[in-house]
Amino acid sequence: MKKTTLRKYTDEFKDEAVKLVTEQRYKITEAARNLDIHDSVLRRWLKDRSSDGTVEFPKNNKLQTGANKEQIRDTIPITLNI
């Protein structure tokens, strides 16, 4: 059985990865692929670094923060097929 080890990333790397999505408008999947990380990891970093702790991912996969309940209900839930 292959043993996997968890990769550890610096806070600077995480911040720069988040900036690719929030400032440079990369799609989450594209940024994650370019950084060789899973998109769920990048989504978690985005959520952790949002000001109010909420992140919404609408149909077009672009980040929006501060989503209210009505906006969240109108979005497609994120599912991962692993």
What does this structure look like?
This protein is mostly helical. The chain has one domain: Orthogonal Bundle (Arc Repressor Mutant, subunit A). The protein contains 4 helices and 2 strands, in the order H-H-H-E-E-H. The chain has helices at residues 11-22, 28-35, 39-49, 69-73; strands at 55-56, 64-65. A two-stranded antiparallel ribbon has the order 1-2. A hairpin with a 7-residue loop joins strand 1 (55-56) and strand 2 (64-65). The longest helix is centred in the first third of the chain and has 12 residues, at 11-22. The chain is globular and about 40 Å long. The two termini are 18 Å apart.
In terms of topology, how is this protein built?
Blueprint (H helix, E strand, L loop, with lengths): L10 H12 L5 H8 L3 H11 L5 E2 L7 E2 L3 H5 L9
Could you give a quick summary of the protein structure above?
The protein is mostly helical. The protein is built from four helices and two strands, in the order αααββα. A two-stranded antiparallel sheet has the order 1-2.
Keywords:
82 residues; mainly alpha; Arc Repressor Mutant, subunit A; two-stranded antiparallel sheet; 4 helices; globular; disordered C terminus
